[in-house]
Every structure is written in structure tokens, then in C-alpha cells.
Specification:
With 340 residues, the chain is an alpha/beta fold. Helix content is 41%, strand content 17%. The strands form three sheets. Strands 3-2-1-4-5-6-10 form a seven-stranded parallel beta sheet, with helices on both faces. β1, α1 and β2 form a beta-alpha-beta unit. The structure holds nicotinamide-adenine-dinucleotide (NAD) and thymidine-5'-diphosphate (TYD).
């Protein structure tokens, strides 16, 4: 396939989107990126500091606004890569409206615009959570054939978005590909998610809240490994296919909390077991054999190397964390955990 040189990235001021933009600028030397992002509470221009303005243009806009999307896509693109989403399960439990709006309606607006602007390929960044929860057995894994069984408003909205991509391909012949990844960690993740929340709390000697019995399992991957997988799928994935992305790194939440505290030199007594999340999925575990076999993708980071780098980044970027933990974050924290 001809190289993808003009990229239209949505949600590129967020955690994973900003890592993808950095990687794409590095890996595709002459690519041009339009980064379209509404700058919700999770979007942060600090995440784009230092990028080459000749090759990266930021446009503030909402993916539900079809006029704004069409205008930003005026000159067409080789690929649309859709990261823009409401992404936090706990928020979707408090209120699902924004999830349906952005993740479902927004994806349809982008699909229509991609068709109208004759975009070559549409990459939908999805999640393993669309496949629901696995039993705690060594031989149970998500594959691309696993049924859709979303359990939270977040995962249901992401499943709906996947269906819309499938329909755009089947009905209109749009070239769509989907990636489904597990739990990402790395620099610039908004501190409402488990890993950066623990890091930022523990660094201030505040308790680290662990839901329920702490034995829920997540399959962790470093954000740059996820972005390398998205690049591979964008460039070489087969049209219409879905690729699961995972680093074969299952951990119980309480083990993750212990590793983080240990790495920071903080006592395990900071762990505080709190009320469980309603409908909390028990286990996610991804079989990434398809992307390994077809595209030769492999993660480069181990859990140990990735965690060490991530912790170093949060220690060296206390300012970023302090800014992210200001304002609206405090209100959310009080609502979710009952304290500020
Ligand atoms: P994030 O919440 O950090 O960033 C989301 C970005 O989307 C923000 O910059 C926000 O401003 C932007 N956005 C939100 N609504 C928008 C709208 N209506 N129009 C334009 N921009 C909008 O999320 P993330 O963790 O970087 O996740 C990115 C994508 O990857 C999401 O689609 C998510 O479902 C998917 N994903 C995330 C993970 C994970 O572990 N974080 C795992 C698998 C898949
Ligand atoms: P999260 O980062 O919200 O990702 P997801 O729900 O998409 O997997 O949570 C990761 C795991 O950590 C999940 O099992 C819920 C749990 N968790 C806690 O135990 N305490 C917390 O304060 C948070 C935010 C999450």
C-alpha cells in the first residue's frame, strides 16, 4: 500500500492520541498531520509541546460537528485515525450522555466525512472492553472472534462505534480497520485512570484507592507499543479487519498497586480498599497472535521497563500532574471517592 503521508488524527491532545502523533512524525519522516480535538477535560495542549509546526497542525473542534470536521478535512487525507472519545468507565457510570454523543454520533460524523473527502483508510481505535469480561481461567483469552458483550456504557458506546465502521465498509465500501487494545499506561495519562491516579496520589503520600477485592485483572501495555501497533495496522492491516493488541501482561489490580508503591519507595499501607465499581469487569486478557503473525508487530517494552520509564516521567513532570489535578478534576474526585 502507498505510504500514508497525510493523517487526520482525532483526539490527538489526549493520552494515546498525543503519543501516536509523536510516533507518526518520527516514523513517517515526510508525513503531515492535522490533529483535531475538542479539548475536553482530558485534552491538554501541554501534551503537544515541542512538535514541529510545519508538519503538525492543531485544530480545535468537535467530532460531532459535521461542518467543522468537513472544513478541517477540506484537503482530504490518506487516513483518519479516530482516538477522540470519552474514555473513562467510571464517568460513563455517573452519566452516559457524552459517551453516546462523542463515541457513537461522533464516529458516524467522521465516517461520513471520510467518505465525502475520499479518505483512503479509516482507523478506529477501539478497546478490548467491547468483548466484556473473561472468566479467571488460564486458557480464556479475547480473540478477534470473541462475541461483543460490552458491560459498561463506555464499552457499549465503543462497540456501537465498531458496528458503525463495519456498516460503512459493508454498505459504502469505505476501507475501515479496527484495533482493540487493553489497558495502556505511560506518560501524559490523565490522573483519573488507575495507574496515574495511584502514582500521583502516592507521590503526595495520599491513599491509593483499590476497588472491591483488588483481584480484577487487566492486561497492561505501554502506550508507545500500542501506538506502534496502530501505525502497523494503518499502513499494512487488511481492509475490514480487526486486530487485538496486547503485550501478554496480565496483572491483578492489587499487584499493580504494590509494584507502583514499591517502585516509589512507599509503604503498602497506602492501599485503601474502597467500594467496588458497579458492574466491574473481572478480567481482560488479550491473545495478540493475529497482529503478531500478520503484521510482525511485537511490544518493545516489558512491564518492568515500561513502568520504570513511566514513573520517571511522572516524577520529572510534577507540574503537568499538578495542572491536571486542578479544577474540574477535584470536583470529579470528590464525587467518585467522597473526599478531595
Ligand atoms: P483520553 O480521554 O486521554 O483522550 C481523549 C481525547 O479525545 C481528548 O484529547 C479529548 O479532548 C478528545 N475528545 C473527546 N471528545 C471529543 C469530541 N467530541 N471531539 C473531538 N475531540 C474529543 O483517552 P485515551 O486514553 O487517550 O484514549 C484514546 C482512544 O483509545 C479512545 O478512543 C479510547 O476508547 C481508546 N482506548 C483507550 C485505552 C486506554 O487504556 N486508555 C485502551 C484501549 C483503547
Ligand atoms: P481504569 O484505569 O479506570 O481502566 P478500565 O476500567 O478501563 O480497565 O481502571 C483499571 C482497573 O483499576 C479497573 O479494574 C478498575 C480499577 N480501579 C481501582 O481499583 N481504583 C481506582 O481508583 C480506579 C480509577 C480504577
Amino acid at each position: 500500500m502507498r505510504e500514508m503521508k497525510k493523517l487526520f488524527v482525532t483526539g490527538g491532545a489526549g493520552f494515546i492520541g498525543s503519543a501516536f502523533v509523536r510516533l507518526a512524525l518520527e516514523e513517517i519522516p515526510d508525513c503531515q498531520i492535522i490533529n483535531f480535538d475538542a479539548l475536553t477535560y482530558a485534552g491538554n495542549l501541554d501534551n503537544l509541546e515541542g512538535l514541529d509546526e510545519r508538519r503538525h497542525r492543531f485544530v480545535r473542534g468537535d467530532i460531532c460537528d459535521d461542518d467543522a470536521v468537513l472544513a478541517a478535512l477540506e484537503e482530504g487525507a490518506d487516513a483518519v485515525v479516530n482516538f477522540a472519545a470519552e474514555s473513562h468507565v467510571d464517568r460513563s457510570i455517573h452519566s452516559a450522555g457524552d459517551f453516546i454523543r462523542t463515541n457513537v454520533l461522533g464516529t458516524q460524523v467522521l465516517l461520513d466525512a471520510a467518505r465525502e473527502r475520499k479518505v483512503r483508510r479509516f482507523v478506529q481505535v477501539s478497546t478490548d472492553e467491547v468483548m466484556g469480561s473473561l472468566p479467571e481461567r488460564d486458557d480464556a483469552f479475547f480473540t478477534e472472534e470473541s462475541p461483543f458483550e460490552p458491560n459498561s456504557p463506555y464499552s457499549a458506546s465503543k462497540a456501537a462505534a465498531e458496528h458503525l465502521c463495519r456498516a460503512a465498509r459493508h454498505t459504502h465500501g469505505l476501507d475501515t480497520v479496527v484495533t482493540r487494545c487493553g489497558n495502556n499506561y505511560g506518560p501524559r495519562q490523565f490522573p483519573e485512570k488507575f495507574l496515574p491516579l495511584m502514582l500521583s496520589n502516592a507521590m503526595c503520600d495520599e491513599p491509593v484507592p483499590v476497588y472491591g477485592d483488588g483481584r480484577n485483572v487487566r492486561d497492561w501495555i505501554h502506550v508507545e507499543d500500542h501506538c506502534r501497533a496502530i501505525l502497523a495496522v494503518m499502513r499494512r492491516g487488511r481492509a475490514g479487519e480487526t486486530y487485538n493488541v496486547g503485550a501478554r501482561n496480565e496483572r491483578r489490580n492489587v499487584e499493580v498497586a504494590e509494584s507502583v508503591l514499591n517502585a516509589l519507595g512507599k509503604p503498602p499501607s497506602l492501599i485503601k480498599f474502597v467500594k467496588d465499581r458497579p458492574g466491574h469487569d473481572r478480567r481482560y486478557a488479550i491473545n495478540p497472535a493475529k497482529i503478531e503473525r500478520e503484521l510482525g508487530w511485537r511490544p518493545l517494552e516489558t512491564w518492568e521497563s515500561g513502568l520504570e520509564k513511566t514513573i520517571r516521567w511522572y516524577k520529572e513532570n510534577a507540574e503537568w500532574v499538578a495542572r491536571a489535578r486542578n479544577g474540574a478534576y477535584r470536583e470529579y474526585y470528590a464525587k467518585q471517592y467522597g473526599t478531595t
